[in-house]
Amino acid sequence: MINDDIEERLREALRLHAAEAPPGASMLGAVTAESVRRGRRARLASLSAGAAVFVVVGAVLSIALRGPAGEEPPPAVGAPPPVTAVAPASAVVLVRSTVLPAVTFPFSPPSGPGYGPPLVTITAGRPTLAQRLPGADGGTATLTLYDAAPPRKAVAAPATVHGQVATLYDWSTAGAGPQRMLVWQPAPSTWLTLTEDGPVPAAGDLVAYAEAVTVGAVKAQAPFTFRSVPDGWTVDNITSGVITFCPPGVRPDGSFVDKLAVMLDDSPSVEPRPGVESVAVKVGARTGTLTTSAEAQVLHVPLDEGRSLALQLGPKAALPTDVLVAFAAGIEVTPSAQVSRG
Question: Which runs of consecutive H residues, i.e. helices, occur in the chain?
Answer without folding.
Answer: 2-16, 24-66, 203-211, 321-329
